[in-house]
Amino acid sequence: MTDLAIPFPTILWRCRDRVFECGPEPLVAGILNVTPDSFSDAGRFADLPDALEQARLMEEEGADILDIGGESTRPGSEPVPVEEELRRVIPVIEGIRGRSDIALSVDTSKAEVARHALEAGADIVNDVTALRLDPEMAETVARYRAGLILMHMRGTPRTMQKDVHYEDVVREVREFLVGQAESALEAGIPRESICLDPGIGFAKTIEHNVALMTHAADLRESGYPVLVGLSRKSFVGKITRADVADRLPGSLAAAVIAFLRGADILRVHDVAPTRRALAVASAARIQLHD
Question: How confident is the model at residue 284 (pLDDT cuts 50, 70, 90)?
Answer without folding.
Answer: confident
